[in-house]
Amino acid sequence: MHIRILICISTLLLTHIANATQLSGREVALKMDAIDTSSDGTRDATMVIQRGNQQLVRKLAILNKKFGEDERSLIRFVAPADVRDTQYLSWTYEDPQQEDDMWVFFPSDNLVRRISGGGKKGSFMRSDFANEDIENRAVDDDVHTFVELSKLNTRDVYVIESKPIAAKAKDSNYHHRRSWVDQEYWIPLQIEYYDTRGRLIKRLSQGDIQHIDGIWTATKLVMETPRRKSKTLMQYDNVRFNVGHATSRFEQSALKR
Amino acid sequence: MPYPIVAYVLLLVLCPTIAAGASTDLFDFDLNAAAPSQVDDRWRIAGFAESRLQYTQSGDWLSRRHAGQIEVRYQHRQWRSFVAGRVQYDGPTRSYSTPLRSELVEAYITHAGQDRDITLGKQRVAWGTADGVSTIDRVNAIDLRDPVGNARTASRRPSWLVKWRQKVGAGDLEAVWLPRGRDRKLPEFGSPWEPSSLHTLRAGAKSNGTVLDIRDFHRPEGGLRYTVYGRGVDWGVALFEGYTDAPVILAATPDGLRLSPEKIRTWNVNTAFAYAGSTFRAEIAYTPQLTTAGTRSKLVQAVVGWDRTFFANLYINVQLFADRFTSIDRTDQGITFAVTNKTLNDSVTYGTRGQVTSGAQSAVEVFADYNVNDAWLLSLRTLKFSGRSGTALDDFDNNDLVELTARWSF
């Protein structure tokens, strides 16, 4: 009898503790957003797109720097040859009402040109990633809902659902995303992307998580589009944080061959 | 221990291992093996080989150009140098030109600092915010020998220059000086791209035995611009002082006739800004003196443009422009446009581009570019010109063409 009472009390106590530590969807999103404590960073990215018998290879150099809550990033294409040295400079703002600023540099014309963010739904360099998948996304660009505590490949995870706010929904391919967020690293180990009919569009898996300059970083990504039987592998190398980029590297005058 | 309990314990022990194994397998790749080249090579050699076939409506080959281009870049600390050279052979041009040509496309060295850059050499430089037709993109001359970039833009020739950029306040001040002027090239006598007025003059001179002196001054040209790229909006002011691309001033000399470019000075204000997912662009320019239809006039130009990407890849670009010659009370106006989309996993880009201007002039292109893989590109396009008799685009009426291009990049 005493044992049964003890089990009941223990169960109630554990449930209470679990409830007390359970975070809301937005709190999980904030934790994810806070994991990168760096002021700036640099990394090289290699993408291999596998589609049927075809294999396409892309290489990029990526730089970013934070300006308070806002962020500036510079992407330079290194391969393939026909887009080599094309560069994208973007200034993204935490305020969801503020439209991001973007410029593209075309090396053949030696031209810096302002572009709009209307192409966010498009594919990023013909990969399974859309442009919106690789951009810096502010926490309040989405409404985040807690779904459940779960396990993914032995890891304890929060499962949350993120739905774009009205102002952002028109620029998104997705009705919502479901993320499996590691409770230790606060990195989504898996993200599923759904359309308005609730059908799965794509699945992103992140792994090879490394502790680099004090920051947990997923260095290998796999984005799969089951309906197209297509898969993109992405690998980050030479990842460094707090390298001290000059502000001028994120200005238009830096866009040159 | 009973069998079910043994199985259960084994399952408990193995499950995490299996799961971890599955997880590890997903990321068991090294993409550097697939793409071993370094991102930050100090030396880099690139280029392409290309065959471009142009067949006209009248059943002639306009061009069968086979070209190879090599580009070498060297970068060390703040120094960058770039050299691009090209060799091409174009058989059908034999009747009016040299079919085999080699050319230094660009060759320059830049010292790039945080607040200032200096560049010496031959370089492509694009000014202005407008697409299609720009009022201040004057640093490089239009290549009048092969003028069609696409149906709404002209192809240009890089210039020998000294370029200085200096950060001033919130923007960049850029000065260019072209000690030998722009690299003008006139269409050869008998070329399909030769304007009829020029052809008549040349033919007349040949038949009469008179001297037609077509001058390419190689006199210095230069310009200055100040551009601010900011949160939500870019704006700039610019001034360019130089000469027209084509020789437009005809004068009698003791020996015959002399045809020379005209000196012009153009002031420009430009802006580009993003709003509600669209980009808006505008330019206004003022040229105090320009000869048109044999009369000197002031010229005021305005360009207003809008472009936006809808859905994933549907891109629309529309631009209205007007040229007002105040002294002769004439206004030319027109529109340039581009509508493009992508299909087949974005491997094919297709669409239409063109311009429609006063005098019922139009140039319209329908095209499809197919990225076969990372190295090969196949392009197919049709290009049609039309215009009232005596207009510039009417001169190209016989150049309506179908073009097939295969390019291999490395």
Sheet with the most strands of chain A? 13 strands, antiparallel
Give the chain pair forming the largest contact, with residue counts: A-B, 64 and 69 residues
CATH class of chain A: Mainly Beta
Number of helices of chain B: 3
Strands side by side in the biggest sheet of chain A: 6-5-4-3-2-1-13-12-11-10-9-8-7
Strand content of chain A: over 45%
Describe the structure.
The complex is a heterodimer of chains A (257) and B (410). In chain A, strands 6-5-4-3-2-1-13-12-11-10-9-8-7 form a 13-stranded antiparallel beta sheet. Helices cover 15% and strands 48% of the residues of chain A. Chain A is mostly beta strands and 257 residues long. Chain A contains 4 helices and 13 strands. Chain A has one domain: Lipoprotein localisation LolA/LolB/LppX (outer membrane lipoprotein receptor (LolB), chain A). Chain B is mostly beta strands. Helix content of chain B is 10%, strand content 57%. Chain B has an 18-stranded antiparallel barrel. In chain B, strands 12-16-15 form a 3-stranded mixed beta sheet, with helices on one face. In chain B, strands 6-9 form a two-stranded antiparallel ribbon. In chain B, a hairpin with a 2-residue loop joins β2 (61-76) and β3 (79-90). Chain B is globular and about 85 Å long. At the A-B interface, β1, β2, β5, β6 and β11 of A face α1, α2, β17, β18 and β19 of B.
Write out key terms for the chains shown.
heterodimer; A: 257 residues; mainly beta; outer membrane lipoprotein receptor (LolB), chain A; 4 helices; B: 410 residues; 3 helices; globular
Describe this structure in a few short sentences.
The complex is a heterodimer of chains A (257) and B (410). Chain A is mainly beta.
List the helices and strands and how they pair.
The complex is a heterodimer of chains A (257) and B (410).
Chain A lengths: L1 H20 L3 H10 L5 E12 L2 E14 L2 E10 L7 E6 L8 E6 L4 E5 L15 H4 L7 E11 L2 E10 L1 H4 L6 E7 L5 E7 L5 E13 L2 E11 L4 E12 L16
Antiparallel strand pairs in A: 1-2, 1-13, 2-3, 3-4, 4-5, 5-6, 7-8, 8-9, 9-10, 10-11, 11-12, 12-13
Chain B lengths: L2 H24 L4 H4 L8 E14 L4 E16 L2 E12 L9 E13 L3 E8 L17 E2 L5 E3 L2 E2 L1 E2 L1 E10 L2 E8 L17 H13 L2 E4 L6 E9 L3 E11 L5 E5 L2 E5 L2 E13 L2 E15 L2 E16 L3 E12 L4 E14 L4 E10 L3 E11 L4 E11 L14 E9 L1
Parallel strand pairs in B: 12-16
Antiparallel strand pairs in B: 1-2, 1-25, 2-3, 3-4, 4-5, 5-10, 6-9, 7-8, 10-11, 11-13, 13-14, 14-17, 15-16, 17-18, 18-19, 19-20, 20-21, 21-22, 22-23, 23-24, 24-25
